[in-house]
Amino acid sequence: MRHHSNRPTDHDSGIRGPVKRTHSDWHIIRDLLPYLLAYKARVIFAILCLVAAKFANLGIPIVLKQLIDALDLKDNLPSVLLAVPLGLIVGYGLLRFSASLFSELREVLFARVTQHAVRQIALEVFQHLHALSLRFHLNRQTGGVSRDIERGTRAIQSLVSFSLYSILPTIIEFILVLGYFAFFYDIWFAAITLAALVVYIIFTIVVTEWRTHLRRTMNDMDSRANQKAIDSLLNFETVKYFGNEEFEARRYDESLIRYQSAAIKSQQSLAFLNLGQQAIIAVGLVLILWRATIGVANGTMTLGDLVLVNTLMIQLYIPLNFLGVIYREIKQSMTDLDRMFTLLEADKEVSDAPDAPNLKINNESIGPEVRFENVGFHYDPKREILVDVSFVIPAGTTTAVVGRSGAGKSTLARLLYRFYDIQQGKILLDGQDLRLVRQASLRQSIGIVPQDTVLFNDTIAYNIAYGRPGASFDQIQSAAKAAQMDQFIEHLPDRYETRVGERGLKLSGGEKQRVAIARTLLKKPSMLIFDEATSALDSKTERALQNELSGLARNRTTLIIAHRLSTIVHADQILVMDHGRIIERGTHADLIEAKGVYAQMWQMQRQQADEI
User: Fold this and answer.
1) Which span out of 70-74, 153-157, 293-297 was modeled with the highest average pLDDT?
2) Comparing 78 with 523, which gets the higher pLDDT?
3) Percent of the chain with pLDDT over 90
4) Handedness of CA 578, 584, 586, 588 (dihedral sign)
5) What would the pLDDT profile of 189-217 be if each residue is shown by its tens digit?
6) Where would I find the ABC transporter domain in this sequence (predicted)?
């Protein structure tokens, strides 16, 4: 529904996290309208109900005037004329009921429109966040982004509510009242009402615009405090390890102090705004009643006219009294919507080509051929991660990559998943450039067991089934058994329904890694990537799982990123990386015989194992 223009990415502009831009109010309304107009008929009927309610509201004081004038009976009039006031009383009641009826109908009709817009925008933002590159998510602050989405969806309801239920009805009622005053009374009534309205609106807008930056500052402080709190709680164990509870509390309190200072300034400016508005309302009301009193005194107006004028002004000034609050909330809603729409404008960086086809694997049973051709890549232009890397993983074979930390090993897996686009060369799967196929089909064809396994705060069964949503319980059990975790699960009180906690913190590192292996087994991908897949396991479990992984990888295209060389001696090809380059390649036997870097690493690990 929403069309996005090509905008500079965060990393290009030097901005980290969500892009922060400010659009005009009309720009934001233009972006919101397509979502609201999805139910055009409902919108039209809701506005018609709004207008009908305002006409009924105008009729109430007019009937009240006629009732008061009708009760001013002369002694010589027959009592049968009392039927006239009785009819007016009934009409008065019907008009009041009609005003309420049309107002409620308007809200009932528009409720679906508002909720549909909230759902669609929230869903679109959620999907867009998942479509953004890994770079964005590594730079983002989870607390700030979640708060922006929360405030943005709430702002839609506030904006619709205040504009449709307050601003627009007040404008219509002012037009009706001004027209009535100008047509039936002295032109001064309309002039005073219009002048008071203009002065009130100008004062409200000027002061509220001045206050807007205070509200934005307050929101920024609120977001920063929330970011620090969530970041600290997510790293609860680290805080405990170093005994830094007081340090975290001080950091959080510093943000709260800045928020408190901004909130106090905002409240003080609000008091000034309210005082000025009340002064304008009071002056306008006094002048209107003064003109009406003079009219009654000189006989040009009746007591009913005086009541009519007073009632109309009260009806106008009651919503007008909240215009400052409403305008401020609308401006705040605009700001919150702008922040959420800005998330939608964050450049995806890694996007599917127009009409990109699905990845086609020549032989699903053994997997694709993987080919890196002169690949160059960097996260930051100042630091090269991969330099002219070329290698081939023949279909159905296993290639292992070893090297020191920072050599670029894990980057290979990220590039295969197309979390980033390379700056030089090509990566081909069965001859197809990864940048030219649909990312969803690419990732569906690859399964990974990562070194750092993060689980959802749900049950063990849910986390295993995440490899293939909709899998049967028997399939989940089979995958758990293959991952050597069925005995561990059987000893849990709730077994497969045991909840693993935030990020899986209720499980040990080895248990989490076995869950990761189980859900990869359940996925049954065409290609496998093991990124230090058994690094968190004890030796006994590692050996058992290694046999399972070897069986799984047999005759299937597999990339193993390893630290323990003993786990990759069976590999068809071993690549040794250093500073983003491949410095050695061959089988285990070939590399040992070459007596190069790999042989030195092998000898070192053998000595460490002997010492243990």
Assistant:
1) 293-297
2) 523
3) 2
4) negative
5) 888 888 888 888 888 888 877 777 777 77
6) 370-604
Q: Which residue has the tokens 């069964």?
A: 461
Q: 558: which strand partners?
A: 398, 528
Same domain (yes/no): 392, 295: no
Residues 397 and 297 in one domain: no
Mean pLDDT over the full length of the chain: 77
Looking at residue 246, its amino acid is E
Whole-angstrom Cα distance, residue 442 to residue 417? 7
Encoded tokens for 518:
């189980």
Place of tokens 């990759």: 568
What is the rounded distance in angstroms from the CA atom of residue 411 to the CA atom of residue 406?
9
Of residues 303 and 571, which shows the higher confidence score? 571
- What is the C-alpha separation between 216 and 147, in angstroms, rounded? 14
Token readout for 498 is 């045991």
Structure tokens at 485: 């975790």
**449: helix, strand or coil:** strand
Instruction: Based on the fold, state whether residues 101 and 52 are members of the same structural domain.
Output: yes
Measured distance CA(274)–CA(277) in Å, rounded: 5
Chain CA centroid to CA 37, Å: 22
Please enumerate, as own/partner, the contacts of 580-589 that have beta carbons within 8 Å and a separation of 24 or more: 580/384, 580/385, 580/386, 580/387, 580/389, 580/407, 580/408, 581/387, 581/388, 581/389, 582/389, 582/390, 582/391, 585/391
pLDDT exceeds cutoff 70 at 13: no
Q: Are residues 373 and 322 in the same domain?
A: no
Among 204, 142, 134, smallest CA distance to 167 is for: 204
Determine the pLDDT at residue 244.
Answer: 81
What is the total residue count of the chain?
612
Residue 266 has pLDDT above 60, yes or no: yes
Burial class (CB in 10 A: 0-12, 13-18, 19+), 467: buried
Q: Is 442 helix (H, G, I), strand (E, B) or coil?
A: helix
- Find the DSSP H helices in 417-508: 439-444, 460-465, 473-482, 486-490
For the cut 50, the answer to whether the pLDDT of residue 175 exceeds it is yes
CATH number of domain containing 503: 3.40.50.300
Structural domain of 112: 10-345
**Nearest to 453, CA basis, from 494, 403, 508, 407:** 508
pLDDT tens for residues 461-519? 888 887 778 788 888 888 888 777 777 888 888 887 888 777 667 777 777 778 888 88
The whole-number pLDDT of residue 2 equals 45
Determine how many CB atoms are found less than 10 A away from the CB of residue 389.
25
CA atoms within 13 A on the CB side of 523: 22
